[in-house]
Amino acid sequence: MALGQHHPAPHTRRSVLLAGSGVAAATLLAGCGGGAGDGVGPDGRVTINMWHGQTDTGLAAIKRLVARFTRTHPHISVDLSGGVLADSMLQKVTAALASGSYPDIAYIFGSDLAGVARSPQVVDLTDTVHSAPTPWKNYWGPAREAVTINGHVRASPALLDSLAVVCNKKLFREAGVDLPEAGWTWRDFVDVAHRLTDPGRGTFGTGWPGVGDEDTVWRLWPMVWDLGGDVIGADGRSIGFEDSGVRALETVQALARAKSVYIDPKPGTEQMYQVFASGRMGMVVTGPWQLPDIRQAKVDYAVVPLPSYSGKPVTISGPDTWTVFDNGDARSRAARTFVSWLAQPDQDVHWDIEAGSLPLSRRSEDEPAWRKHAAATTGLDVFTKALDSARVRPAHPAYAQVSTALGQAIVAVLLGKSSPAQAMRRCASEAKAALVIPR
């Protein structure tokens, strides 16, 4: 929610899987795209317009999948023209819905789905997913939860990931520090980061995005959940992490005070990953999308689960979606057919391997192609196993405002401009203002 720029530009969650923060849109909205006509040609062939949101590797994978789909479904044509890259998709889809000219399928970030799904033009896919060849319950929990709003499936899962810690084994050896193991704690993480930091050599123990965006925020949610907090309070009108958020921010503060964390000042997190790839960072919290670059940089690495406060495994998954829009019965049926086909194991694994996602279902995980890929990629199994303990951000219309408030709090603590308690009080006030607005 996921997930290829040409090298030497580094991969990020947004650039590899989606579009790259700051990358210009490839094309503008197509005026003749969605919302115009029933899409049925004289020969009975139905044309659907898909705003795929991908660039480079992801786009090449989608094109190959579309070609394969067309061979087995000759009555459906998938038009990949029009649309924008995924970072701009929410704005463009919102404008398209207002104008009445929208696509049949769009790549929507999971964190944006709740807002988009308020439109009556978003197709309810509950019946589609429950009648698909792969049983709905066979999908990983995060994949199901990310697309379910008020008991209804409002999109098809498109990408699945998780967070873990990638370690530079060379820096650990040179610092005389043992590699961490499953069950380690955040106190251990802070201690190890400090021991790996060497100002004289310009090495950091770890890194954290420092611009206050979603990349900054979603790394904190596993800490909040592990401490018993939640994103939205039980009353639905306040945040659920005022206390747990302070403690999580105290861990961030400890890293900052020890100067053992590289704070990436630019959107996209590219600089943080460059520091790790260059051998000057001991640990980086990241997802499976980063492994191709780490391997290309010839970093001798290991992957370990996230630390916790409780000793129990916990992580976050940020699934993204294929959202279907209603352009009439013929096009809606064709679009549902295509996204259902994409989610089936054979196609899913093709997409997972090329675009950096994890398998959507356990059936996909059992595919020989995935097992071969996982066996050849150090640490990939750690990310997949982490899905057992992964949670997702809530599909809530006010999530974006809550995230913005928390992002500002994290940055204030990272930069030493605020204490955790002060930052959380400000965050709670700003988030509550968004949550009390009727929606």
List the helices and strands and how they pair.
Elements: H1 13-17, E1 46-51, H2 57-72, E2 76-79, H3 89-99, E3 105-108, H4 113-116, H5 126-130, H6 141-146, E4 148-149, E5 152-153, E6 156-159, E7 164-168, H7 169-175, H8 186-196, E8 206-209, H9 214-217, H10 221-226, E9 230-232, E10 239-240, H11 242-257, E11 261-264, H12 270-277, E12 283-286, H13 291-296, E13 301-304, E14 315-316, E15 320-324, H14 329-342, H15 345-355, H16 362-365, H17 368-376, H18 380-386, E16 390-391, H19 399-414, H20 420-435
Parallel strand pairs: 1-2, 1-3, 8-11, 14-16
Antiparallel strand pairs: 3-15, 4-5, 6-15, 7-12, 7-13, 9-10
Helix pairs in contact: 2-15, 11-19, 11-20, 19-20
Summarize the structure.
It comes from Streptomyces montanisoli. This protein is an alpha/beta fold.
Question: Could you characterize what this model shows?
Answer:
The chain is α/β, with parallel strands linked by helices. It has 2 domains: 13-160 and 319-391, D-Maltodextrin-Binding Protein, domain 2 (3-Layer(aba) Sandwich); 164-316 and 398-435, 3-Layer(aba) Sandwich (D-Maltodextrin-Binding Protein, domain 2). It has helices at 13-17, 57-72, 89-99, 113-116, 126-130, 141-146, 169-175, 186-196, 214-217, 221-226, 242-257, 270-277, 291-296, 329-342, 345-355, 362-365, 368-376, 380-386, 399-414, 420-435; strands spanning 46-51, 76-79, 105-108, 148-149, 152-153, 156-159, 164-168, 206-209, 230-232, 239-240, 261-264, 283-286, 301-304, 315-316, 320-324, 390-391. It has a 5-stranded mixed β-sheet. Strand 4 (148-149) and strand 5 (152-153) form a beta hairpin. Helix 2 (57-72) runs antiparallel to helix 15 (345-355) and helix 11 (242-257) crosses helix 20. The longest helix has 16 residues, at 57-72. The model is unreliable at 1-35 (pLDDT under 50).
